[in-house]
Design goal:
alpha+beta; Creatine Amidinohydrolase; six-stranded mixed β-sheet; three-stranded antiparallel β-sheet; 34% helix; globular; Creatinase_N; Xaa-Pro peptidase family protein; Pept_M24
């Protein structure tokens, strides 16, 4: 399994972007997002308040503009010659030594400048007197994954599944959310041990449990002392391994679910099955989301409060990127895109019902890259789980959560 993107692929990405800049008759294209620069050069960094720029100008080699203290570090950027790594003094800095001064020197004196949709307004304001055009050039490049990228995401998916399995194994009736957070270190250690050239800036693990009824608010912040008792709980793991991400999530129970929970769980699973059945190249993403909305409406789970969100989104360098499987999306599925599939049902006061998988679009349909069991029996706690309870007691004692 591939553990790093080949240098030749990074160079090809830069070459393809430069061709697209020429085709669109831009004088230059300015890349400023951390993920985009990483995608094009393989160089991870932490920008903090100091902006980083990749400049793509027709007829010139690509160049970087970075803070002076990062210049040596960024020499690892693939496809950028050392002499094309420019630096500004600091942020803030006096007139003449600011990043905006250096950027003005490096940009062509005339012509339209392309910028990313995510470009901060203050960057556009600093390019005084120039015509700017917002273009999603890098985002479009990232939509369809290469064979190496798919291998990287497949690897991240293994660790995402590992995390979900650990979260559920550590859970029991009466456990607290903190016991799940404590499992994060095991997955992080496994990644560090097995990934060559591990880079702290390009690897992340987020593991958490949303205990019912908080699971009905999937973007809330789980509280350490929340108890796993009645209702549906959500185990979520997001991993990023050498830059590439995966997502795995399961609804599970620490007590036998009530009738209402069983019905909502079944509706969520059927919505998920129907979404999977539509995955194939050429299908409009909005059609999938609309079909699931219609199904859940017929099941009695109509309205934004019970649905809350779209069916899914793209996964790659980011855990959320295009294509967007949502009503209103103009995206169409294509072979070698990677997406999440996660239709949900949310019942305030009871909890949320959502499985999420990382899924590869193939030439004939799809392949699930995350494979944690998804049936109700597998996701309902059985037995006393004495080892988990003992470990949980020690964690609660250390944190004072009694």
């Amino acid at each position: 399994m591939v553990t790093a993107i080949p240098q030749s692929e990074y160079r090809q990405r830069l070459e393809d972007l430069q061709k697209e800049v020429c085709r669109r008759d831009l004088a230059a294209f300015l890349v400023s997002s951390m993920e985009s620069i990483y995608y094009l050069t393989g160089a991870a960094f932490a920008p903090l308040e100091r902006p980083f720029f990749l400049l793509v100008v027709p007829g010139r080699p690509p160049a970087l503009l970075v803070p002076r203290l990062d210049r040596d570090h960024m020499s690892k950027a693939i496809g950028i010659e050392v002499g094309d790594i420019h630096a500004y003094r600091e942020y803030p800095a006096p007139t003449g030594a600011r990043w905006s001064d250096r950027l003005g020197e490096l940009l062509p004196s005339s012509g339209e400048i392309g910028v990313e949709p995510s470009t901060a307004a203050y960057i556009g304001d600093a390019i005084e007197g120039r015509s700017l055009r917002c273009e999603s050039l890098v985002e479009r490049q990232r939509l369809v994954k290469s064979a190496a990228e798919i291998d990287m995401i497949r690897r991240a998916a293994l660790y995402a599944d590992k995390g979900v399995n650990r979260l559920i194994a550590a859970s029991y009736n009466g456990a607290v959310v903190a016991e799940g957070f404590a499992e994060t270190r095991h997955v992080t250690k496994a990644i560090i041990r097995s990934v060559p050239d591990w880079d702290a800036l390009a690897n992340d693990v987020l593991m958490a449990i949303w205990a019912a009824p908080r699971s009905a608010m999937p973007h809330s912040v789980p509280m350490l002392a929340d108890r796993l008792n009645n209702g549906p709980h959500e185990a979520l793991v997001l991993t990023r391994v050498n830059g590439y991400s995966a997502e795995s999530e399961r609804t599970f129970f620490t007590r036998s679910p009530c009738k209402e929970s069983r019905r909502a769980f079944a509706a969520m699973c059927e919505a998920r099955r129907q979404a999977f059945s539509m995955l194939r190249p050429g299908v409009r993403c909005s059609e999938i989301d609309n079909a699931i909305t219609e199904f859940l409406n017929r099941e009695g789970y109509q309205g934004e409060k019970k649905r809350l969100h779209r069916v899914g989104h793209g996964i790659g360098l980011g855990t959320h990127e295009g294509p967007w499987i949502a009503d209103g999306s103009d995206d169409c599925l294509a072979e070698n895109m990677v997406v999440s599939v996660e239709p949900g049902v949310y019942l305030y006061g009871l909890g949320g019902f959502r499985h999420s998988d990382t899924v590869l679009i193939t030439n004939e349909g799809y392949e699930r890259l995350t494979k944690v069991p998804d049936d109700l029996d597998s996701l309902t706690t059985h037995g006393l789980k004495l080892a988990a309870r003992t470990k949980g007691w020690m964690i609660r004692k250390q944190l004072g959560l009694f």
